[in-house]
Design brief:
The chain is of the alpha/beta class. It has one domain: Vaccinia Virus protein VP39 (Rossmann fold, 3-Layer(aba) Sandwich). The protein is 29% helix and 23% strand. The protein contains eight helices and eleven strands. The strands form three sheets. A six-stranded mixed beta sheet has the order 5-4-3-9-10-11. A three-stranded mixed beta sheet has the order 6-8-7. It has a two-stranded antiparallel ribbon with strand order 1-2. The radius of gyration is 17 Å and the shape is globular.
């Protein structure tokens, strides 16, 4: 068990079996993705739901839960999902809902990585590939009785699949804050990646200099 205090939240992480992940949590996490937290946290609301699409082990939601009515975490990688569930139980975070599914309009999605569980599982990686269950964004809204009035922020960090998920017109139209992580370097054809994103962001979209940067869209 590893203990943390970050952004005013005390929480614990289950022991890691992978030495690289253990090193990440012990030596890197406290300076990890400060921009992501700084963009998301001010827009959370204790009366609203935070949607964490690509939750991994829960580093964002375990902090976001303090300022949210509930956090719904979607994580298709079974090993990462198992750690997510362990972390939620370890901290007794009763307002975090965990869902072992990818968010997609397809009936199933194949993801892989050289080693599952490390946070880099992607539909673009064939190694150790597995088929995972999916749930569409429209089904999320229906199943959890959500709409743009009771969602605070949608966070999307799905290792390149954002270029597909963001084609969903419902996700584009819903007027809430959205934090979207980009993964341009996952693609050999970066022009196609950018053109796919322009369908969501508009023709004037320009990639950030950092190919693994993010875009925060404020509610209108």
């Amino acid at each position: 068990m590893i203990e943390f205090s970050r952004y005013g939240v005390d929480f614990k992480i289950s022991e890691q079996t992978d030495p690289l992940l253990d090193d990440f949590w012990r030596n890197c996490y406290m300076n990890w993705e400060n921009d992501t937290y700084n963009e998301i946290l001010p827009h959370l609301d204790t009366t609203k739901t935070f949607l964490d699409i690509g939750a991994w082990q829960g580093p964002i939601s375990m902090i976001a839960q303090q300022k949210s009515k509930q956090c719904i975490c979607f994580e298709p990688d079974p090993i990462a999902y198992d750690m997510l569930v362990k972390n939620v139980k370890l901290n007794n975070f009763n307002n975090i809902v965990t869902v072992n599914k990818a968010v997609s309009n397809d009936d199933s999605l194949t993801i892989g990585n050289h080693e599952l569980g490390g946070g880099g599982s992607s539909y673009l990686r064939p190694q150790n590939s597995i088929k995972c269950s999916t749930i569409s964004f429209s089904d999320i809204l229906q199943q959890y009785k959500l709409n743009e009035d009771n969602i605070s922020v949608i966070k999307i960090d799905i290792e390149g699949y954002e270029c597909e998920l963001l084609k969903d017109p419902i996700l584009k139209e819903i007027n809430v804050h959205k934090h979207i992580s980009l993964h341009a370097d996952f693609f050999s054809d970066k022009n196609k990646y950018v053109n796919d994103l322009k369908q969501f962001f508009g023709k004037g979209f320009v990639m950030p200099r950092n190919p693994f940067g993010s875009i925060f869209i404020k509610k209108q």
